[in-house]
Structure formats: C-alpha cells, structure tokens
C-alpha cells in the first residue's frame, strides 16, 4: 500500500506567502535616507570679466569650484569654451551662447594663461547674498538639475 503524501503545492504556496510577506514588511522605524553635505568652502577666483558672474550663477548649481582646479592649467580659451558648451548641450545647462563664451573666457583667463579678448569689460552689480527663502524644487526644475545624475542621491 502506498503512503499518501501531503499535497506539495498548497504547502509551498503557504511558505512562499510567509517569505514574501516578511520580505515586504518594513518596520515603522525605518526612515528615508537623508544626506547632509558639508558646507561649500571652495570659491571661484574673483574677476571683472562678465563670465565670472555667469559662472557664479550657473556653474555652481552643479559643480564645486574645486572642480575647476582639477582641470589642466594649460587649457586654452577654445577648450574651456568647448567644455562649457558641452554642459549646455549634453547636460542641458541653462546657458545662452553669450554666457558660454563669457564663461569660457573667464575660465581661460583666470585659471589658464589666456589673455582677455580685448572687448570692453562690464563689471556687473554685486550679487545680493542675503539669506532668502528658497524654493528648492523650482530651482532644480528651472536649472535642469533633475535630469542629471545628482538626482540619484535624492531618490
């Protein structure tokens, strides 16, 4: 006489259900991961060139000023301008063509051995650095930051 075995399928389904339920259950004490970065200490070298203000306003959105010091000091103005243009086209940096040229000149003159293009330099008014309430999401959206890899940190 054959011994009868308990049905395997219902038992397997029961075990599978317990395992899945335990894996999906999360304790209420788990909180989303938050990262607090240290304050930025690097600063761009001041300049009367118009690209300085544009770099302060646009480049610092995604880059630390230390990033510039990692580049070769032998970079020419066309090379710097090409780097900035790459940010405009490949990474959707919100830059006008004039800002690309101005920032390229500022970087080449200030961080390399280039000379100014000879155009009249207009000193823009100082930027108001007084603390204000900032809508972070609006800034991220307006400056195309949500499309770059830094958004991976916030997920």
How is the CATH topology of the domain at 48-113 named?
Cytochrome Bc1 Complex, Chain D, domain 2
Low-confidence stretches: 120-125
Give the percentage of residues in beta strands.
Answer: under 5%
CATH architecture of the domain at 48-113: Orthogonal Bundle
| Rounded mean pLDDT score | 78
Major sheet: size, sense and barrel closure? none
Continuous helix count:
6
In CATH terms, the superfamily of the domain at 48-113 is: Cytochrome c-like domain
Structural class: mainly alpha
Keywords:
elongated; about 160 residues; Cytochrome Bc1 Complex, Chain D, domain 2; mainly alpha; single chain
Give structural notes.
By secondary structure, the chain is mainly α. The chain is built from 6 helices and no strands. It has helices at residues 8-24, 50-58, 66-69, 77-90, 97-111, 136-142. Mean pLDDT is 78; it is low at 120-125. It comes from Polaromonas naphthalenivorans (strain CJ2). Keywords: Oxidoreductase, Signal. Its EC number is 1.8.2.1. InterPro entries: Cyt_c-like_dom_sf.
Topology readout:
Elements: H1 8-24, H2 50-58, H3 66-69, H4 77-90, H5 97-111, H6 136-142
GO molecular function: electron transfer activity; heme binding; sulfite dehydrogenase activity
Signal peptide: 1-25
Keywords: Oxidoreductase, Signal
């Amino acid at each position: 006489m054959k011994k009868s075995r308990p049905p395997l399928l219902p038992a397997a389904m029961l075990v599978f259900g317990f395992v899945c339920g335990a894996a999906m259950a999360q304790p209420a004490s788990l909180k989303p991961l938050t990262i607090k970065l240290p304050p930025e200490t690097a600063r761009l070298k001041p300049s009367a060139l118009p690209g300085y203000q544009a770099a302060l306003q646009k480049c610092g959105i995604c880059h630390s000023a230390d990033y510039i010091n990692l580049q070769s000091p032998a970079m020419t103005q066309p090379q710097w301008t090409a780097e900035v243009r790459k940010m405009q086209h490949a990474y959707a940096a919100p830059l006008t063509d004039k800002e690309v040229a101005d920032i390229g000149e500022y970087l080449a003159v200030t961080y390399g051995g280039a000379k100014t293009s000879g155009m009249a330099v207009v000193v823009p008014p100082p930027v108001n650095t007084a603390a204000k309430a900032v809508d972070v999401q609006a800034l991220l959206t307006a400056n195309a930051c949500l499309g770059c890899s830094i958004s991976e940190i916030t997920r």
